[in-house]
Request: fold
Amino acid sequence: MHAWPASEVPALPGQGRDLRIHDTATGGLVTLDPGPVARLYVCGITPYDATHMGHAATYNAFDLVQRVWLDNKRQVHYVQNVTDVDDPLLERAVRDGVDWTALAEQETALFREDMTALRMLPPRHYIGAVEAIPGIVPLVERLRDQGAAYELEGDTYFSVEADPHFGGVSHLDAAAMRLLSAERGGDPDRPGKKNPLDPMLWMAAREGEPSWDGASLGRGRPGWHIECVAIALDHLGMGFDVQGGGSDLAFPHHEMGASHAQALTGEFPMAKAYVHAGMVALDGEKMSKSKGNLVFVSKLRHEGVDPAAIRLTLLAHHYRSDWEWTDQVLPDAVDRLERWRAAVSRPDGPPADALVEEIRAALADDLDSPAALAAVDRWAALQRESGGTDIGAPGVVSRAVDALLGVAL
Reply:
């Protein structure tokens, strides 16, 4: 599966800073020191509907992570999956009377268009669950053969007790885990499971649903968590730098995935940092496909909204904060974009070197994009009020905003 084209990232004078970021597993800020190649895995979409602002906010956060690393002269090995077979996708296809593969292809193509328009840097490897199945089956068999998995009426489950570190990502108690498991695709009330929290690794073929050869597992399809584990281990290996996604993935998805990988390899941890973006709400509730309270990136684009303004709307909120989409957030971003473009349209202006360092410092401090935007606002205000004599400063600002914030002026 191919990703989307990469926008050019301008080179800036000097060098960026090491990234200090919030790690859900430790509950505090950690300074990442990835070495020459930084390894990032971000969980991708289940393609049964278009990209909404919640998605865009998440991918914007991890785009910033990449840009900080690139500015610090590191290469980035970024991997993202597509869950192109799962219950919500199959249910939507039945509801709409369409082929599930066509629906997945259509929505994945639209996602690529949205990511391109928003200037999100693409992953090096963009892998669908279906194409990963040949690598998933042997992992499930290994877990079973190690005694870390068991069969129940043809389905194969992972035993959470096989990983002594289980619970170390989300730090939730058993009651909270059970509640979230039921809400987020698990089946804690199924009779016969060794532990209500045990997640499915391989679902035996169901009538009328797609299935694949699972060798000794029989025909079926993979569970959600093992999909990402197989892809991450194949392309990044254990101990990669950042596992990323929305905060709703901390449990069960990232918790279970970490335990799968740790039980498979005997190594700990799967990722050095678990980084989670906040949720975007509309009308007082988290945007979600199940609720239908969505603001779509593609709809805004088709209405003529500049993608740079959409991106500035996202950047105006700290990536870890939960925030609400209101009628005012987009007009505010459009106004900011106009002020910035006016400021960089002149041949000279206030000195820009200090501004570049302010943006770098803000992003290195747990991706503080609101502080970075405020710094550019101050420079633009100086340009508007008194101008300056630094020839080329507007060009430096324009390149810095592009390279570090992904906004083309």
Remarks:
- The longest strand covers residues 75-82.
- The radius of gyration is 22 Å.
